[in-house]
Write a structure and sequence with these properties.
Helix content is 7%, strand content 54%. By secondary structure, it is mainly beta. A 14-stranded antiparallel beta barrel has the order 1-2-3-6-7-8-9-10-11-12-13-14-15-16.
Length: 302
């Protein structure tokens, strides 16, 4: 039963699934700025959610503190999953930076069925969830090169008797030399996930690589390719234009292959900056599984 639940909830997130994956929330970014640009984030400038994007990018920011909250409604037409997240970091302004983040991902509720096919009158509806907390730090080792590491604990609950806890880490690198920024990371390296059965399941380990290029003042293009060790490549590309350092428009496209071949969609995004506050929104306008997904983030930086 637990094996079926694991495959079911991974499939609800990924679309077409060829192989069981656990902790699919690790593949869902909480940053609306990233989603608006097709999900390309590894080579982006550090936002409040840099610990999910690329921790190594923080030392290159001109901000001392950046914190934000996020709300997302994923796949509303098919599964209506909800995500709430918080992230923030502190930058020394020279070489060192550190931060914290937390995220909860909740699936639609369901009612247990007994062996006779009758809905349970005891357990009642149950809502599966995944909760993640993490901390990270980064250090600029050269003028244009920095490294970072983020550790996390993830707790997954698929049913009242199907719970698991896992520990993992991301190791990241960022290189910046205007107008180019490069990002590289090995993500979700950690313990296997067991829901109490004899078998266990790996976290969705992947290698991420990306490039951003500032075409001219206010206009930037970025792209990312991620290789999942379980099989498949995920990619995204997008552009953003910032007018007067206050209003930002974004668009992009995200594509998945292999175990995430259903995760292909087009995105649009808008953002505004005013007196240190940052408001970003992203909308998925195309894609069989993700259409009308909406993500909003609110942050403050100084």
């Amino acid at each position: 039963m637990r094996r079926i639940l694991i495959s079911l909830f991974a499939a609800l997130l990924a679309g077409s699934l060829l192989q069981a994956q656990t902790l699919p929330s690790l593949l869902v970014n909480a940053d609306a700025a990233a989603l608006g640009a097709g999900g390309s984030a590894i080579a982006a400038d550090a936002t409040a959610f840099a610990l999910e994007n690329n921790t190594a990018a923080i030392p290159f920011s001109d901000k001392t503190v950046f914190a934000g909250v996020s709300y997302g409604l994923w796949q509303p037409s098919s599964a209506a999953k909800n995500q709430i997240a918080f992230s923030g970091w502190w930058n020394s302004g020279k070489r060192f930076a550190a931060g914290l983040y937390a995220k909860t991902f909740r699936y639609p509720s369901y009612t247990s069925i007994n062996e006779n096919g009758v809905p349970s009158q005891v357990d009642g509806p149950f809502s599966p969830s995944e909760n993640i907390i993490g901390a990270g730090a980064s250090f600029r080792i050269l003028e244009g090169l920095s490294v970072g590491v983020t550790g996390r604990m993830a707790a997954s609950t698929l049913a009242k008797d199907a719970k698991a806890t896992a520990y993992g880490a991301d190791i990241s690198v960022c290189y910046k030399h205007d107008p180019i920024q490069l990002g590289l990371a090995f993500c979700n390296v950690g313990t296997k996930v067991s829901y109490g059965e004899d078998s266990s399941y790996p976290q969705p380990m992947m290698l991420r690589a990306g490039l951003s290029y500032r075409i001219l003042e206010g206009l930037k293009a970025q792209a990312e390719a991620d290789w999942l060790l379980a099989g498949g490549v995920v990619g995204g590309a997008g552009v953003e234009y910032c007018w007067n350092e206050k209003v930002i428009a974004r668009t992009g496209y995200h594509i998945g292959t292999g175990i995430l071949q259903g995760a292909s969609f087009g995105t649009l995004g808008l953002g505004c900056r005013l007196s240190g506050f940052c408001l970003d929104a992203a909308w998925v306008y195309a894609g069989a599984n993700h259409r009308n997904t909406l993500l909003v983030t609110l942050g403050y930086a100084f």
